[in-house]
Amino acid sequence: MLFSNEERCLYARPTAHEVICQLLFPGILSIESREPADFQEEIRGRFPLYARRQESLPASVFRRTGDTSESRSLETVTNYHFVTEDHLCKLNLTKNFISLSTLRYTGWENFAAVLDQTLAAFIRIYQPAFFGRIGLRYRNIISRSALGLEDCEWRDLICSAYLGALADEDVNAAMITRMATDLELTFSESCLARIHAAPVHMKIPGANQLEAEEKFMLDMDLAMGGSISAQLTAGALETLHAHSTRIFRGAITDTLHEAMKPL
Asked: CA dist 228 to 25, 74, 155, 237, Å?
């Protein structure tokens, strides 16, 4: 099934590899013209490491902020990086967006608390007119060995809607060298989700080779668009998180759910 209405639960062995929240807003030139010293002072206790880089932003960022000019996709912008001491959590700020990402996701409440504090400082200092897009992305990496499920097939763990040919019991999974499922779901006129699901081999950190173990990626990118006022961002994020919970629980079987050790 694509959705589950079961009550949300936390897991002792979660599969979230990376969680990203990004908010796009109409360009604020003061962010580009001078370093955000006041903003840094507000967040420096949590994000002590700082770097400033010139980067080219993808055309999608400009399209989402209302600029359809082809030349904008080649524009170089200043991207301010604020990073935690362990390098596992990062905050990015440009004249068009602010984002928070983490490789150590300990639950929505903890992530949302950091996000709330960060956004409160950003809104107070820069007073964005509105947010044109609010996105919440979960990159889940499911490892059978980490969960003690080495003897299970992916069809034992993942809903058939995301498995393509792998859902067929008559298919020899070893014969399939590449398979992916991409879905786009619309919850309302302004809220949608893009989901990418596929078996993957992860690159070994610090090496030019891939892990021997095949894992499964469930990448859920949810977004809400329009002209969202600062006062409504918290509610928008809660809505996106609620949808992500329904999608994730609907994507996994009871076998995988139990292996993740619900709390």
From this structure: 9, 27, 40, 11
What is the average pLDDT across 233-244?
Answer: 96
Cβ atoms of 81 and 51 within 8 Å: the answer is: yes
- What distance, in Å, lies between the first and last C-alpha atoms of the chain? 23
Whether 169 shows a pLDDT value over 90: the answer reads no
Give the residue-averaged pLDDT of 99-120: 96
pTM for the predicted model, two decimal places? 0.89
Q: What span, in angstroms and rounded, lies between the C-alpha atoms of 221 and 135?
A: 7
The kind and range of the H/E element at 53 are: strand 49-56
* Strands of the sheet with 191-200, listed across from one edge: 49-56, 76-83, 89-93, 97-102, 16-24, 131-142, 215-228, 191-200, 181-188
Whether the CA torsion 233, 227, 60, 183 is positive or negative: it is positive
In angstroms, what CA-CA distances link 93 with 16, 35, 38, 128?
A: 23, 10, 13, 13
The phi, psi pair for 210, rounded to 5°, reads -100, 150
The pLDDT of residue 129 is 96
Model confidence at 102: pLDDT above 60: yes
| Token pair for 95 | 């004249």
